[in-house]
Hints:
Elements: E1 7-10, H1 17-26, E2 30-38, E3 41-44, E4 48-50, E5 54-57, E6 61-64, H2 73-80, E7 86-90, H3 97-108, E8 114-118, E9 133-139, H4 142-152, E10 159-163, H5 169-175, E11 182-185, H6 190-199, E12 203-206, H7 209-218
Parallel strand pairs: 1-2, 1-12, 2-7, 7-8, 8-9, 9-10, 10-11, 11-12
Antiparallel strand pairs: 2-3, 4-5, 5-6
Helix pairs in contact: 1-2, 2-3
Amino acid sequence: MDDSPLLAVAHRAGNNIADLRAALAAGVDLVEADIHLYRGALEVRHRKAIGPHLYWELWLELHRRRDLIVPELHEVLAVAAGDPRLMLDLKGPSLTVAPRVAEELRAHAPGVPLAVCTRRWTMLDSFTDDAHIGRVLSAGDGFQLARLRARLRRERVYGVSIRLGLLTAPIVAELRRATDLILAWPVDTEAALARARKVGVTGVISKNLPMLSRIVERRDRRPALEFPDGAALAG
């Protein structure tokens, strides 16, 4: 089991302003926010839209849009106020979300080192000229992981984010030859955390804020998280 200090990433906490503030106050290393482009607005939400009036979450939760408070990206950036501890997960069917997010960051958080993550890797090309943005390739199924492993045999990348159930210690050891940042999700229980440590990932993405707080409190040092331009999170 790898006892190296883990990065603590608050899963979806950036989708709600109160949760964002709570996660930042808890001292997590990154706060994930899901970004959708909808009717010209960069909405911060995990829920998917059904037409102009409804949002759904895995068909288990159906809500009217008018009953929800859905922040936009510029609001999240304003609350973060230059704090680099954001990881924006680009969602949705349209690749247009990526250049729009790049424009928004240049307008509202110029030069702030942030991470951008997506399972649609071509979106990350919109940030090629932004040296302070860490580009994280995500994989959520076996096919994507196979493609990711093939890509990392050819090139180094800033970071990867992979469903925990897909990972083994040999796979993580292989990935570590091409990246220093290997995030696993979802890690919401102590059993999942133990598995993440056992396979050797460098960070965990969790909705369990108390567990993330314990990870932060118990480590004797913050693990390294440097951005491509050399900027690093304060220790």
